[in-house]
Amino acid sequence: MTPRISELGAHVGQRVTVRGWVTHVRSSGKIAFAVLRDGTGIAQAVFVKSQVPGEVWERFGTLTLETSVSVTGEVRAEPRAPGGYELGVAALEVIGASPTDYPIQPKEHGIDFLLDHRHLWLRSARQRAIAAVRSELEQAVHDFFYERGFLRVDTPILTAAIGERSGLFSTEYFEEGTAYLAQTGQLYGEAAAAAFGKIYTFGPTFRAEKSKTRRHLTEFWMIEPEVAWYDSNDNMRLQEDFVSFLVARVLERRQAELKELERDVSKLETVKAPFPRINYTDAVAILQGKGSAVQWGDDLGAEDEALLVEGYDRPVFVTNYPKEAKAFYMKENPDDPRTVLCDDCLAPEGYGEIIGGSQREDDYDRIVQRIKDEGLPMDAYGWYLDLRKYGTFTHSGFGLGLERTVAWICGLQHIREVIAFPRMMYRLRP
Amino acid sequence: MTPRISELGAHVGQRVTVRGWVTHVRSSGKIAFAVLRDGTGIAQAVFVKSQVPGEVWERFGTLTLETSVSVTGEVRAEPRAPGGYELGVAALEVIGASPTDYPIQPKEHGIDFLLDHRHLWLRSARQRAIAAVRSELEQAVHDFFYERGFLRVDTPILTAAIGERSGLFSTEYFEEGTAYLAQTGQLYGEAAAAAFGKIYTFGPTFRAEKSKTRRHLTEFWMIEPEVAWYDSNDNMRLQEDFVSFLVARVLERRQAELKELERDVSKLETVKAPFPRINYTDAVAILQGKGSAVQWGDDLGAEDEALLVEGYDRPVFVTNYPKEAKAFYMKENPDDPRTVLCDDCLAPEGYGEIIGGSQREDDYDRIVQRIKDEGLPMDAYGWYLDLRKYGTFTHSGFGLGLERTVAWICGLQHIREVIAFPRMMYRLRP
To answer: Residue A67: is its pLDDT beyond 70?
Structure first.
């Protein structure tokens, strides 16, 4: 039998063969230990000199960091061992040697060095924990929408021009001219919502921005639901249910990983719907009272966001931003036409915006005017306008930034560790 | 109450309000019918002239194709009605009118016209059925791997040069030079498999190829699992379990959509593991016996693939292709070094290749030689070679083309209908 390390608990008392990589060795001269990892867990292999063939003992002496091995022995529960199980070794084969110049040693390395060796850095316990939380969260996203009858729709990455926007990556597209990498799937999501009722997208989005903050990647993943007949209020209810569901799932199934990351889970356990809602105009007054220089009409910066969520034990919605601070497709607020029916969802602990959502402008004339006001090319939006021309409908949606959400849940200050191979302004490799 | 149409069964005998779009109207003068769709289903609204206010009856007269409406009435089960339920109308509001020039009328349209109006074409029953099967299949993909302890890994789209390959889309990437849109996540998946054991990717991939066949898109989605310690045989077992699982899920949960598509489900019900395996060398002999001009060393074309699967009631593996016909990273077959340990999985009914898989070359010297033989730039592969240098490991993986798989399961001849907004050589809009 060749179980994965995560399956050893089902094989206590049995002889099995485990394949994995050496992460640590020590020897007293009579008894020796090798800690193995195989990506699913870690286990300790115990070599007793008097009980193993001489060549096995000698082979143990050749093991280096990241040597790949096949170890055969009896599985024993051992609470003191890393991983909780150990193998009483009977046989050891070296599959792949690992030269002693293995780049990542058990010491401090600089971030650039680690990112240059991201393909090996991923093997660390911390990076595996982050990857497992991310993967769990992704499954939770799909389960949440599947259970609620949403169809997943894959919107295009390669898109024709939708205006002179900044921050777009572009590529030549045969004889069609220039194609741009999508910054959002939303406009397509709106068309799909009219066709399928409740939809969501899940895919990579791109920003060619010269940002070097801890919250920016040039390539990042977004989840963008769009729902026919939802107004702004329904939209926020969906958001708070969604975020609560994601956090609860990680708490339920990834405690070991959160522990590895030394995450204070008490800060996550309070994340339950409903979330507080603060009107933008009130938020500005609160921030000014706290000493911020923000003025009505400004978008909120990262510092303002952190200031605003102080004292809250769960995410906070800031609603109804000024029209000028937000995108053209947001619906005008009938109660205050200077503002739009939108929300930003700010994570607690100063992690900042994880969601931007809005009710969409569904009035044909108003959205035509907004496109003109913004100086966008009307002809590029012809198909989008059709959604308002033929049976327009109340609809709302939002975009959740996957990396920012994972960073918050894992308690990470920088999102570069949250994706397997991060892409930033100065980082295209490996 | 404002249920979705798919939820009407839970509201029989109750008064509800349904919001949706008009797909069909007819009237006898005393009784009138409007068929509504809301993306989750269809239902019939019944207007009895003598029982509704005069203005409601008049308003019925204004309904056109794709007018959006809100209809209030009592839910009745009615097996003869489209969708199985009808509403005995008490009130009708028009939300969004639909001019009579609505582009897609109940008549034949040419494919270019339909693709130009894809944002509206998606509203048809047939397109909704395809989208629902695709979405179901996507969820099934995630469930399959999640249940088996795989981590999902999102590999990068923007990648540095990995050689003078053809068919790459490229974009300027700040001061890092040119970035290329990934054709596969596999190489990154291999690094992740060494870190996490069992992984899969799920994302868009890109081919800038001037292909105009019914099986090519420039942007399509791939699922690429990669598993440490799996050999070619384990890999094929995973593939046949995976494909069987996907087909069974769609049969279990999307019968209505398969019926809408007039799919002969008996052709799907036989898709069960294990799948037959034909060695490439045998396949060539079989094909030659059937009159094909194929010669040993050639890759198999679409016609050969269709010829080969004749008479099989499930997918067929063709194994161990000649080295020259396949990519550099495939492991040499020790039993016949002219060939590699790989498989193509061919769908039945002539739908062709849906999976390409292989055991990866894990010998450092051999893969260096293959990179040299192919004329690829060694320095671009430094990080990839590290996987063979530090604790090399047996590993295998495959790539399943999502659109081809959906096209086969739905019984579609062309994959352009299988994705919401297809991208082809002459198609970048909408």
So the answer is: yes
Integer CA distances (angstroms), A59 to A43, B86, B362, B403, in order: 19, 76, 21, 49
H helix count then E strand count, chain B: 13, 16
pTM summary value: 0.98
Q: Which residues contact A312 (CB under 8 A, 6 or more apart)?
A: A276, A348
Q: What is the 3-state secondary structure (H, E, C) of B31-53?
A: EEEEEEECCCCEEEEEEECCCCC
* Identity of the amino acid at A92: L
| Chain B CB within 8 Å of residue A241 CB | no
Same fold, A5-96 and A119-417: no
Which residue of chain A has the CA closest to B228? Answer: A38
With beta carbons less than 8 A apart as the criterion, state whether A185 and A232 touch. no
From A101, A353, A137, A320, select the one nearest A232 (Cα to Cα).
A320
Average pLDDT (A385-409) is: 98
Residue of B149, B176, B219 lying closest to A158 (CB–CB): B219
> Can you read off the two tokens belonging to residue B269?
């019900």
CA atoms of A372 and B313, how far apart (whole Å): 58
Assign domain B119-417 one CATH number from 3.40.50.12280, 3.40.50.300, 3.40.50.2300, 3.30.930.10: 3.30.930.10
Q: Tokens representing B386?
A: 């590290």
List the one residue out of B64, B201, B430 whose CA is nearest residue A390.
B64
| pLDDT score for A163 | 62
Q: Which H helix or E strand runs over B207?
A: none
State residue A164's pLDDT score: 55
Residue of B244, B245, B197 whose CA lies nearest to B396: B197
Look up residue B260 and give its two tokens: 């809408």
* A301–chain B nearest CA distance, Å: 25
Run of H or E including A305: helix A302-309
* B200 touching chain A per CB within 8 A: no
Given a contact cutoff of 8 angstroms between Cβ atoms, the answer to whether B359 and B330 are in contact is: yes
Contact A119 B228 (CB under 8 A): no
Query: Is ipTM over 0.85?
Result: yes
Q: Are A100 and A118 in contact (CB under 8 A)?
A: no
Instruction: Tell me the mean pLDDT in the region A199-208.
Output: 97
Give A202→chain B minimum CA distance, Å.
9
- In what order do the strands lie in the sheet containing B352-359? B151-152, B198-206, B219-228, B395-401, B352-359, B342-347, B316-319, B277-279
Tokens of B237: 């077992």
Neighbours of A61 (CB within 10 A): 10
Per domain, the residue ranges of chain A are 5-96, 119-417
Tell me B71's DSSP state: E
pLDDT of residue A161: 75
Amino acid making up residue A175: E
Beginning with the edge strand found earlier in the chain, give each strand of the sheet holding A198-206 in spatial order.
A151-152, A198-206, A219-228, A395-401, A352-359, A342-347, A316-319, A277-279
Record the tokens describing residue A310, joined without a space.
Answer: 């102080």
Q: How many interface pairs between A and B have CB atoms less than 8 angstroms apart?
A: 282
Q: Measure the CA–CA gap between B223 and B428, rounded to whole angstroms.
A: 23
Q: Between residues B401 and A210, which one has the greater pLDDT?
A: B401
**H-helix or E-strand spanning residue B258:** helix B255-260
Instruction: Please enumerate in sequence order all residues whose Cβ is within 8 A of that of A64, keeping only pairs 6 or more positions apart, or say none.
Output: A22, A97, A98, A99, A100, A102
- Sole residue written with tokens 């069992």: B198
* Whole-angstrom distance, CA of residue A90 vs CA of residue A84: 19
Amino acid identity at A384:
Y
Nearest chain A Cα distance for residue B305, angstroms: 29
Q: CB A100: neighbour CB atoms within 10 A?
A: 8
Choices 1.10.10.10, 3.40.1010.10, 3.40.50.2300, 2.40.50.140: CATH for A5-96: 2.40.50.140
Give pLDDT < 50 ranges for chain B. Answer: none
